């Protein structure tokens, strides 16, 4: 084979192995409707799920590169100058009695996008009249296979593991080079609770809901932000 062709093929292979940016595969737009295939393993049922992206604002007090504080937009504390957008996904007919912003996507967290990084925020009171909320780094600019990107609340942990890229077909449409992620939860034991496929510039196209017990994921196995 001609050396120039070998070089070109090598560059193509290298490009295909580059670490993807989560934000490129998880676009958000206020009030936009997103649909995807949802499969429940336990009942072997599949159906089309619809979620609507919602937006709310908050003021931010910058911290370090891993976390910052948030308060309601009306807060007059001069330390909280910058206004940022928080995004969450809800069903077309959300629970009318809910007093919190609650996310129905596969992470079940509110999202804040800063510099191509994704920060997560727990569900928050709709009146925002609460103590300062913390936003923690969840996904860096680039995803790496095998790293446990985590959300932690006391003894409860939720882990997101980037598996790699693979195609998937949904309702006769083939999506190439999707990023595939496994979702785990740990409290007393560890379980794989889902697998998601995200297409570039589209978002989630398939979400398999699981309930598989797995080897216990200890705290030592969770990634630390300083390793980014």
Q: Topology as H/E string?
A: HHEEEEEEEEEEEEEE
- The tally of structural domains comes to 1
Number of helices: 2
For the terminal residues, how far apart are their CA atoms? Answer: 39 Å
Total DSSP E strands: 14
Structural class: mainly beta
Structure description:
- Strand 13 (190-199) and strand 14 form a beta hairpin.
- The strands form 2 sheets. Strands 1, 2, 3, 4, 6, 7, 9, 10, 11, 12, 13 and 14 form a 12-stranded mixed sheet that branches. Strands 5-8 form a two-stranded antiparallel ribbon.
- The N and C termini lie far apart (39 Å).
- Mean pLDDT is 82; it is low at 6-16 and 220-226.
- The protein is mainly beta.
- The radius of gyration is 19 Å and the shape is globular.
- It has one domain (21-227).
- The protein has helices at 3-16, 22-25; strands at 33-40, 45-62, 67-71, 82-90, 100-101, 110-114, 117-121, 124-125, 133-139, 148-153, 156-170, 173-186, 190-199, 203-214.
- Helix content is 8%, strand content 52%.
List keywords for this structure.
228 residues; mainly beta; 12-stranded mixed beta sheet; two-stranded antiparallel sheet; 2 helices; 14 strands; globular; disordered C terminus
Task: Give a brief description.
By secondary structure, this protein is mainly β. It has helices at 3-16, 22-25; strands at residues 33-40, 45-62, 67-71, 82-90, 100-101, 110-114, 117-121, 124-125, 133-139, 148-153, 156-170, 173-186, 190-199, 203-214.
